[in-house]
Amino acid sequence: MIDVIRILAALLALGGALFTLAAAIGVLRLPDLYTRMHAASKAGSVATGMVMIALALVAASTGEALRALAAVLFFLLTAPISAHLLARAAYATGTRLWPDSVLDEMPQQPTGLRRIKLPPEPSGPPADRPSEGSVKP
């Protein structure tokens, strides 16, 4: 029975590594912030869960197994929420969608989310602009 548990733990760890690889490839290859964040949060959550469950299966004590399962629960509760909040913040600051995106549903939502107007970048020759270390009298 112990061998079956170890084989199952090894398969879960391998599956977690494959999901981690998929998340990394998604972060590198997908076109914009929102799709990259989706890949990282979804595949990353599954990967972490699989590795932590594998750890719980081979843990030497019940306390270690419970801590690993608590980590799975904590990660599954916090990762999607934090990714959602980061995406909303990126949208509010004006991060653009990929040009080939089909639909932008945020303007239709009456959530009170408004875009933040950033100040324009200074223009003109560099001599007209103060340097970072200068102090105005």
* SSE string, helices as H and strands as E: HHH
Helix content: 55-70%
Q: How many runs of DSSP E, i.e. beta strands?
A: 0
Unreliable stretches, pLDDT < 50, 5 or more residues?
none
Mean pLDDT: 83
Straight-line N-to-C gap? 78 Å
Estimated structural class: mainly alpha
Count of runs of 4 or more consecutive helical residues: 3
Q: Main β-sheet: number of strands, strand sense, barrel status?
A: none
Content of β-strand: under 5%
Rg value? 23 Å
Identify the overall geometry: elongated
Explain what you see:
The chain crosses the membrane at residues 6-28, 40-60, 66-87. Keywords: Membrane, Transmembrane, Transmembrane helix. This protein has 137 residues and is mostly helical. The protein has a domain at 2-96. Helices cover 62% and strands 0% of the residues. It is built from three helices and no strands. The chain has helices at residues 2-29, 33-58, 62-92. Helix 1 (2-29) packs antiparallel against helix 2 (33-58) and helix 2 (33-58) runs antiparallel to helix 3 (62-92). The protein is elongated.
Give a concise summary.
It comes from Consotaella salsifontis. By secondary structure, the protein is mainly α.
Descriptors:
mainly alpha; 3 helices; 137 residues; 62% helix; single chain
Topology:
Layout: H1 2-29, H2 33-58, H3 62-92
